[in-house]
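User: Thioredoxin domain-containing protein. Structure?
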Amino acid sequence: MEATDSDWVRGNKEAKITLVEFGDYQCPACADYEPFVEKLSQEFADDLKIVHKQYPLSTIHKNALLAAKVAEAVGKQGKYWEIHKLLYEKQDEWANDGNPRGKLVQYALDLGLDKQKLESDMDSDETRDEINKDIALGDSLRVNSTPSFFINGEKIAPRSYEEFKKIVEDYKRGYTVE
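Assistant: Predicted structure:
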């Protein structure tokens, strides 16, 4: 599974190790794992490409799709990773809100974005199609929970930062010429 031009990528875009996360911004476990992924992106900055795919579990997380739309729209203004972090950090504020759109839009505006473009992009067919493409890929890979992680196409289920780190180090050894 390779990153495409439309994917949200952090780390070294040329890295031989690709970590793909299928995430849901309303998922408490995804929020718990975000610091691990962030730490990996820093510790393995040269060796690891990290890709985030939208996988809102809308049947159990009623606000997840809206949050994914906000993230995609913010990304179009160059601040994807900033809103990504904020949505997880502020999850307790918006996740169970009956109408979180105002809060989510305000988080984006606090990043200095154009409100009209943001709202237009949130509701665009292009944004919907990008999210649906991620969901379809996740479905084809039998993703059934979030977060779901794949490293170079292999599904992994680390339970701690140490397990994550060991997996990346194992892959790194396999790609490093000694």
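DSSP finds eight helices and five strands in the chain. Helices lie at 28-43, 64-75, 80-89, 91-94, 101-109, 115-122, 125-140, 161-175.
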